[in-house]
Amino acid sequence: ASRPFSKHHYEPQRPSFGIAFDIDGVILRGHTPIGGSLQALRRLYGDSGALKIPFLFLTNGGGVPESNRARELSRLLGVKILPSQVVQGHSPFKELKNRFENELIVAVGKGEPAAVMSEYGFKNVLSIDEYASYFDNIDPLSQYKNWTIQNQINKNNTLKEMATRSNVSSDRVQAVFVVSDSIDWSRDIQVLCDILRTGGLPGRGIGHQPPLYFASDDLEYQAAFTSERLGMGAFRIAVEAIFNRIHPNALEYTSFGKPNPFVFKNAEAILKQLWLSSSYGVDAVNNEENSQPFKTLYMIGDNPSVDINGARQAGHPWFSILTRTGVFKGKENHADFPADLVVDTVEDAVNYILKKEL
Ligand code: G3P
Ligand code: MG
Q1: Counting ligands in written order, which one lies closest to the CA of residue 327?
Q2: In sequence order, which residues have a C-beta less than 8 Å from that of residue 92 and are 6 or more positions away?
Q3: Confidence of residue 12 (pLDDT cuts 50, 70, 90)
Q4: What would the mean pLDDT of 284-295 be, rounded to a whole number?
């Protein structure tokens, strides 16, 4: 029997489980839905379109604000996804707002890394594209890069803003946030080494390394090509290996995203909020506020060392399900990070969960 989860179908028996979906290699490859993801997600909504089962997306990807990503996912997947249901690799960066709110910070990566940080409340953030444009000749290869034209356009667009920021090159960068995958590794590694080795003042002498944060540490991810692609973890290895050769002290950094246990704690808190706001009336909410609503939280992922490792480390109430539609393609369970269950697709995973729970 189904247990509706909408205000209009109040029933005392609520779902005592929630689901976290990985995106790349489980729900999508590139922009294409895979593994029966459309059908699987539709089963989590009632006939009226109201959310029946609390679920969210827990991805190490990113580069756009959560509200934009929610809109894009809604379009690609044909269901209404709320911004609160989208947790990206960089989402935990907002916890650092108080520390760097008014400090000059640099944001790296594809998409709109500076817009992501501004939306989190950081007030003095520059993308690495814009930051680099304040330093003539900082990238000796820029003349060979055909996207310099685009950078030039951006630069013209922001001339007014640049006038009000005339002191950028003498303003100390207080932290660097790698929000999403670097597009131009050679320029970004160069500029990051400049910032990090000088204490935030490229072109100057050696200084104390400012804090460096990565949104995730995925060595590889599935994407649309046949074999896996190098991810942010590969970029981190490149930055670290080079920095450690040119600087007396080893690179210090923090990586967020899965498998960091913080991410799973945060996902649990968000799922609880979804569960509370989705409807049992004020009385039920008051009574339940401090209780633990979930007997089981399911993590459905394709990457054993990231998704499954993370869910295993998070422990109770997490239950890990590994699909074969992405990084993992094995026949048996993964040897080092065995999942609680291995299935072919996300649709199989949701079928299993709903059969067991409803
Ligand atoms: O860049 C995205 C990739 O690192 C992983 O995405 O959704 O599989 O966590 P996802
Ligand atoms: Mg994945």
Answers
A1: 2
A2: 256, 257, 260, 262, 263, 266
A3: very low
A4: 68
Contact (CB, 8 A) for 168 and 104? yes
Maximum CA extent, the chain:
69
Decide which of 310 and 167 is more confident: 310
Report phi then psi at 40, rounded to 5. -60, -45
**Mutation choice for ligand 1 from 59, 110, 309, 327, CB with most ligand atoms inside 8 A:** 59
d(CA 218, ligand 2 centre) in Å: 9
For residue 134, pLDDT beyond 70 = yes
How much distance in Å is there from the Cα of 52 to the middle of ligand 2? 24
Q: Is the pLDDT of residue 8 over 70?
A: no
- Dihedrals phi, psi of 318, to nearest 5 degrees: -75, 140
Cα(172)–Cα(322) distance, integer angstroms: 44
Which residue's CA is minimally distant from atom 8 of ligand 1?
24
Atom of ligand 1 nearest to the CA of 60: 9
- Sequence length of the chain is 358
Residues in the ligand 1 pocket, defined by CB under 6 Å:
22-25, 59-61, 181, 216, 218, 221, 231, 303
Q: Cβ contacts of residue 155 below 8 Å, gap of 6+?
A: 130, 133, 162
Residue type at 190 in one-letter notation:
Q
How are beta strands 229-230 and 220-221 bridged, if at all?
antiparallel
What is the C-alpha separation between 303 and 316, in angstroms, rounded?
A: 20
pLDDT digits (tens, 9 = 90+) for 25-43: 999 999 999 999 999 999 9
258 CA: nearest ligand 1 atom: 9
